[in-house]
Amino acid sequence: MSRVGSIVFLSAGAWAALPSAVDRMKKHTRAAAPRRSLAGAALSSALSLAWVALVVAAPLAAAWVASSLAAHGGGSVRAAAASGLLVFPVLPALWEAASAWRRSRRGNPRPRVLTLVDRMVMRTLAVSLTLIGALLARDPQRAFVALNSRGDWMLDGRHDAGAEAARRRVFWLAARSEWLFHLTDENPFHAGATARPPRPNPAPGAAFVAPPTGAPRPVVEAPPEPPRDARAWPWPLEMHPAVRALPASAETSPEAVGRYLAAHENDPWRLARAVHDYVADRVEYDVASYRAGVYPPQDAATTFRTRRSVCAGYAALFEAIGRAAGLTVETVVGRARGVVTEGMGEGHAWSAVKLDGRWHLVDTTWDAGYVSADGFHKRYRTEYFLTPPAVFLAKHFPDEARWQLMDAPRSAGEYMRAPTLDPRFFAEGMRLVAPSRAESDARSVVEVVIENPRRRSVLIDVAVDGGARLRCPSSGEATVTARCALAGGDLHTVTIFVAARGGDTHWSVGSLRVHNR
C-alpha cells in the first residue's frame, strides 16, 4: 500500500472502529457504576471531556484544512469554510435518513443500540475524519504548506494583541503537521531519492529592468558606503589574487588546489574566500543534465575533472578543496527557494566552514551564476559567502536545525511565511515593511512599502502568472511606496528590482505572491 493510501486507510479504520468502542465503553461504565471510586469518576469525566473535544475539533479541523488549501490555492475561502456545514449537519443528517429508510424496508428492524444524538455524533465524526484524510492524502506536502502559510486566513488584516495571540496558536497547531511534508519528501540528496535538484539562483533572480528610454534617472544624495572590513559581509566583488594567479601545474586535483591556496594565503578567512572563488569561478552549472533529469556523479573528483555539476558537485568540491587547505568544512543538505518558488522550495546542497571557532554558511552554486531559457550564465558573486544566518535563511532551510546557526531556530512555517529576498536586498540596508509575508491577499491593489535608507533606485513590477510585467507607480526615496494594480486572474507575482549605487541596471532582489480577492 502506498504512503498516501495509508492515510485514507487509517482514517477510515479509525472512524469505523469508534461506534463499537463507544458502545463497549458505555456497557462497561453501566456495569461498574456501583463500584466506581472517586478516581474512577475522575477518569470517566476526563474521558468524556476528551470525547467531547474530539467531536468538536474534528469538523472544525476539516473546515480549517479545506479553507487553508483554498486560501493558498486561490480558491474561494468562504466556500471552503462553508464545507463545515456539509460535515455537520448536512451529510450526517442525510446518512441518518438513508439508514432509517433502509431499516424501514426491512419490516421488523432490531432495536437501536445508540440514541439519535449518539448516532449523529458518530456520523459527524466519521464524515470529518474521512474528509480530513481525503484532503491530506491528495497532496500531503501541499496541505502542510497551506496550513503553515495561510492557516491564519481568518485573521487577515488584524494585528491587535488578541489577533496576534490567536495567530501564534494557529501556527503552533499548523507546525504539528510537518510529518505530512516528510511523508512524501524526496530530497535529491537523500539516499534513493530521484527528484530533480534546483537550478542555481532560479529565474528571475538574474533578470534586470533598465529605466525607460529617455526617462531621466533621479539624482539624489546617497549616504556614504559603510566601511568594509575584510571579514565583514558583504565582501568586495573581486577574485582572490591566489585564484587569479593559480598556475596549471597546481591545478591537477582538488587536493593540489587546496595545498596551493593554503601556501599562498595564511589568513583562514581569506583562505576560505579563495576556495569559494575557485569553485564559483571554475565550475559551470550542468543545465543539460538538470533539464534531462539524468545526472553524472557529483563527487569532488568528477566535478573537478568535468568543471560541470549541479549544486551537490559544487558543495562536494568546496569541501574537498577546503579540507585539503586545512579548513574545517561540511556539506549541508536541505531545501532552497528561488525568487518565485513557493513553499519549502527544492532540494539543495550548500556548505558550512568553521572559522575562529564559529560556523559560517557558503553557497558556491548561487555565487557562480544563473540559468535562463538559453542556458547557464556565469556571474561571479560573493553574496552567499559567509552570509549572516538570518539573511541566508531567507532562501535556504537545512534539514538539521543546527545548520541554521541561529540562537532560536526558525520553524518550517516561519521560513515559508518570510518573503523570498536575495542577500543584495539586505546588503543595501533595505527592509520590507509591507506586505510582510511571502503570500498575501489584496483587493484590486497591493501596496508595497520598502525602507530604503541608502536611497537606491528601486523598481517594482507586477504580473499575473505567465503574463506581461507592468510597472507599479511608486514614490519616495528613503521609504519607497508602490501601488500595484491587480487586474485579472488570481495569483500575481510582485518583483522588486534594485540598482547598485551609480548603476542603471536593476537586478531583481525578491518577489511576493499576491492573490487578487
CATH class of the largest domain: Alpha Beta
CATH architecture of the largest domain: Roll
Derived structural class: alpha+beta
Approximate shape:
elongated
Q: Can you walk me through this structure?
A:
By secondary structure, this protein is of the alpha+beta class. The protein folds into three domains: 3-183, no CATH class; 198-209 and 222-416, C8orf32 fold (Roll); 419-517, Immunoglobulins (Immunoglobulin-like), CATH 2.60.40. The chain has 17 helices and 20 strands.
Keywords:
517 residues, alpha+beta, C8orf32 fold, Immunoglobulin-like, 3 domains, seven-stranded mixed beta sheet, five-stranded antiparallel beta sheet, 43% helix, 19% strand, elongated, disordered N terminus
In short:
By secondary structure, this protein is α+β, with helices and mostly antiparallel strands. 43% of the residues lie in helices and 19% in strands.
In terms of topology, how is this protein built?
Blueprint: H1 3-32, H2 38-73, H3 77-81, H4 83-106, H5 116-138, H6 140-150, H7 161-175, H8 178-183, E1 208-209, H9 241-244, H10 254-263, H11 268-282, E2 284-285, H12 287-292, H13 300-306, E3 308-309, H14 311-324, E4 328-336, E5 346-355, E6 358-362, E7 369-372, E8 375-378, E9 385-387, H15 389-392, E10 396-398, H16 412-417, E11 420-421, H17 423-427, E12 431-434, E13 439-442, E14 445-451, E15 458-464, E16 470-471, E17 474-475, E18 479-485, E19 491-499, E20 506-516
Helix pairs in contact: 1-5, 2-4, 2-5, 2-6, 4-5, 5-6, 10-14, 11-14, 13-14
